[in-house]
Each structure stands twice: as C-alpha cells, then as structure tokens.
Amino acid sequence: DTGVSQDPRHKITKRGQNVTFRCDPISEHNRLYWYRQTLGQGPEFLTYFQNEAQLEKSRLLSDRFSAERPKGSFSTLEIQRTEQGDSAMYLCASSLSVGPSLAYEQYFGPGTRLTVT
Amino acid sequence: GQQVMQIPQYQHVQEGEDFTTYCNSSTTLSNIQWYKQRPGGHPVFLIQLVKSGEVKKQKRLTFQFGEAKKNSSLHITATQTTDVGTYFCAGHSGYALNFGKGTSLLVTP
Lengths: 117, 109
Fold this sequence. Notes:
The complex is a heterodimer of chains A (117) and B (109). Chain A has 117 residues and is mostly beta strands.
C-alpha cells in the first residue's frame, strides 16, 4: 500500500500521560498536514509542514501539542499531559506540490483514534 | 478567521432521488475543495474548483463555484447507496485548509 499510513491506529491513555503519533506520507510528497476530527465535525487543521519546515500552526492549538518532521519524510505529533478533551481522531494528510499554490489535493491517512480516560 | 458553513447537516433520501449540499464561506476563497468521508473511513478528495463560476461534473456529481467565490454546491443526480457518506467542502486560509462540518447523506434503497 503506497498511501498515507499512521501509527498507532488506536491509543488509549490516562489523563496526564504523554502520547506520540507517527505519520508516513506518500513517498516524495513534500507537504504534510495534521488534523483533528471529533464526531459530527469536519477535520480541524492543526499544523502544516513543507518538507521539514513547519510553516503554520493553528492558533487554537495548545502548547501541549508539538509536531516535527525532521527529515522531511515522516512526521510525529506529540501531546503532553493529555486531557479528556484531547480525545479525537488525529488525521494526517500529504500532498505533492510543484509550485507555491496551495491548490493541491490532499491524501489522508486512516487516522489515529485517541481516547483519554 | 475564515469560516466555512455547510447546509444541510443531514439529508436522508430514497435511492434515485437527487441530493444537494451547499457551502458558504465568510471570506472570498482562492479555491474550494470537496471531500467525501464514508462511515468509519477517512476523507477522500473529490474535486477542486478554482475559477469564479466554475462548474465541473464527475458522472452523477456536479460541482459549482459561485461567481463571488464565496459559495459552492455539490449536486448528486439519482443517488445510489454507494453515495452514502459525509461530504465536506474546504477552503484555504493561509496554509490552513478549513473544513465545513459536512453534510451527511443517507440513502435508503
């Protein structure tokens, strides 16, 4: 399967614990996005990478959230001191751009479902 | 900030009936994208509209972008059970792609 992959698919953690998710984008895709989705809502933008550079982070994103894409390939999203409100599906998407336009389709991974107890 | 609103939130149709979902943005959009998410699945890209007044068709699906580039619609002719899912529109604000809440379509055979 050459699509976007995410690991783990499910994570149950206790409040206050740290969690880390991994996203492997489609090979050679230079753009990578993280979203959060809760039931009945559309994906909510969290952050965007172009290659290894994090170019935008949602202002709604708590300082407990951090993301990296160290070599411009896979990315990790870490949540520190998890809260029950962090329970959601965390989606990763990637796209390939050949210019500055943002108008490229995004390919989504299957997501990591986080449950904070 | 930019907000993307979709109506209706839910739509239940009989197979063979038509379906339309509407998307409105609080700001002018450079482009608009549509995605479909099946129950238990992840969003899948359907189409992108860029030009004012643009109309694109994919088999039974017709997508329109408003003249002012602030609204869009998706129309499905003669729905089938395979059309079941949630349809999202999304527009860019900076690098962020902002999704509407989606319209969930249920098709009864």
